[in-house]
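Lecture notes, unit on protein representations.

Consider one protein chain, 372 amino acids long.
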Amino acid sequence: MPATRTAQRRRRTIAAVAALPLLAVVLGACGYGSEGEKDEKVAPAAEGEKIGGLGEVKIGYFANITHATALVGLQEGLIQKELGGTKIKPQVFNAGPSEIEALNAGAIDIGWIGPSPSINGFTKSKGQNLRIISGSASGGVSLVVNPKKIKSLDDLKGKRIATPQLGNTQDVALLNYLSEKGLKVDTNTGKGDVTVIRQDNKQIPASFESGSLDGAWVPEPTASKLVAGGGSVLLDEKKLWKDGKFVITNVIVSQKFLKEHPDVVEAVLRGSVKTNAWINENPDEAKAAANAKLKADSGAALPPEVIDPAWENVDITDDPLASTLSVSSEHAVEAGLLEDPLLDGIYDLSLLNKVLKADGKPAIDDAGLGAK
């Protein structure tokens, strides 16, 4: 994360955001809630010439703080502005696999998504369905526990720890960490020295407060929701990675869409890069914009005691941190979730680097995993 963003956070007074009660309702296959009341601010409509004559581009994302680029870019109209008359059709998802299915079915064209679903989708399609075209976020994942039941990392044996889904990015991270600690867990059943319980992010806080979970390895804002409910951060995943950086959110695109509409993809990437720059330069305003989008998507904004720490825990970046994707892939293999992952050709950063060059920014490396 740029130093300017950290310095600004320390200097600036935290912007006021709406303190509304959390609402856990189901959004089809999506997010933390159903379509709720719209925020007072309406994002700009599609105006002007359609890029390449295309009427709309279908974009997927999660209602998570780790997807801040999508939340803020859509809320502030920064992505739509670059698309002119080509209208954004957004769709919110709750889990990576469902977003990959939507991409494969043509229900979305471009999406913000975690590394593990990206690897799984690319591998299962034998490298034919997607490309990672940009980074979006790093960090924002913690192991939060009931401090009365777990006081140290040596107390995990015999405990019940949740992850959002079997094989998702946090599930892979937890299984790998437990293995390194010498604790054995059956990958599929979650049973072993530690019981790993797979449960939707939106359900985990209630389970935690009821006592049916002893902890959870989860992304933001779920981690901060658990802390607000009496939990304690036992481990910030940043501490497990070199320089504290690891990819948590990528931008992916259907290979078919990329081939047919590269100009539209480039426009989305211009919007993404401009959004990331605006977030890092205006963290308080960006936080309020993200919360407004969460309210529009789920019917409820996050209270300050949740969004403030959640926002601080996520680093926004254009860099997909390709080398850390390789490490995540190795962890998935060691956990028995992947046998022979395919990574060669998973990245195509050519349009991103074109956008960055136009902004006078350095090119980003794909760690040798770019499309030939």
